[in-house]
Specification:
This protein folds into three domains: about 80 residues, Winged helix-like DNA-binding domain superfamily/Winged helix DNA-binding domain (Arc Repressor Mutant, subunit A); about 80 residues, Periplasmic binding protein-like II (D-Maltodextrin-Binding Protein, domain 2, 3-Layer(aba) Sandwich), CATH 3.40.190.10; about 100 residues, D-Maltodextrin-Binding Protein, domain 2 (3-Layer(aba) Sandwich). About 40% of the residues lie in helices and about 20% in strands. The strands form three sheets. It has a five-stranded mixed β-sheet, with helices on one face. It has a five-stranded mixed β-sheet with strand order 9-8-10-7-11. Helix 1 crosses helix 3, helix 2 crosses helix 3 and helix 5 crosses helix 10. The model has no long low-confidence stretch (mean pLDDT about 90).
Length: about 300
């Protein structure tokens, strides 16, 4: 069975609303002959005459009366779907956005982001979801609206991404730590007791790779799953935490931070989203806000 011509719905809506072939033709800007041909196709498709003569005029058949409201609603729905998105009214926006990110990102950038949203769109809420891995399936499934992190954009070509900021590692110790009172050399850094940050429980990372050419190796005494936990442990002990500088700025207040005494590669923190949300006005607003907050903090 061939697919019906959905353009006939517009013609049918005009015919049923006007109750006159001539008025329907004028409404649709068709010639009388074109309108007659369209009505013939409608009768053939529906298997019903739709309009029948009664005296000098036409009256709808029972089938036409049955279809009239349904067809009108279908046409309205189609017009709504095909209409360009309306301007976003932030004051009336009522939505919860799920952002999958690390605790450090939420703690460092979350307060400013929430404050900005509260000023602009008081009906919007943020749901900061934990990020136990780098699997982008929640984005593909629509469970997550936005994701942030150190993301290889080339590894997910079906997703959209944008860089937020560049970052690098710094060392952090408590204010009264012995390292806070001396010049920190690679040897003194490596000789301390260190915290390794790894979601997978791995005790090696880019910092250890950077120490290798110097013939040095850190002593890892504990492994944690996030930078905020690492800073919490370092704040109350002699352990050394090595964390992203911008990612943890607000979390390091009251502690001694120092540049690592050896070169390490910078890395990019990005946001990632599914193409289904690329053109949505509310999502575009949220992404621009996240970008602005990250650039100013």
């Amino acid at each position: 069975m061939s697919n019906p011509d959905l353009n006939l719905l517009i013609t049918l809506d005009a015919v049923l609303a006007e109750g006159s072939v001539a008025r329907a033709a004028k409404r649709l800007r068709l010639s009388p002959s074109a309108m007659s041909r369209a009505l013939a196709r409608l009768r053939e498709t529906t298997g019903d005459p739709l309009l029948v003569r009664a005296g000098r005029g036409l009256v709808p058949t029972p089938r036409a009366l049955e279809l009239r409201d349904r067809v009108a609603q279908l046409v309205r729905d189609a017009q709504e779907v095909l209409r360009p998105a309306e301007l976003l009214d932030l004051e009336k926006l009522d939505r919860t956005f799920a952002i999958r990110t690390s605790e450090g990102f939420a703690e460092n950038f979350g307060p400013a982001l929430i404050a900005r949203i509260g000023e602009m769109a008081p009906g919007v809420r943020l749901f900061f979801m934990q990020k136990p891995d780098k699997d982008s399936k929640p984005l593909r499934d629509g469970v997550v609206d936005l994701e942030t992190g150190v993301i290889d954009l080339a590894s997910a070509p079906e997703l959209k991404g944008q860089s937020l900021f560049r970052d690098n590692y710094v060392g952090v110790v408590r204010a009264s730590h012995p390292l806070s009172r001396c010049t920190i050399t690679p040897e003194k850094y490596a000789a301390g007791m260190h915290i390794s940050v790894s979601r997978e429980g791995i005790d090696r990372g880019p910092i250890d790779d950077a120490l290798l050419p110097l013939g040095l190796e850190r002593k890892i005494v504990t492994i944690v799953g996030g930078f905020s936990i690492a800073l919490g442990l370092a704040r109350g002990s002699d352990l050394i935490a090595s964390v992203p500088e911008r990612h943890t700025a607000s979390l390091r207040e009251g502690m001694r931070s120092f540049p690592l005494p050896f070169p390490t590669a910078e890395f990019t923190v990005s946001m990632l989203w599914h193409p289904r949300f690329s053109a949505d006005p509310a999502h575009r607003w949220l992404r621009s806000l996240v970008l602005d907050v990250c650039r100013k903090n």
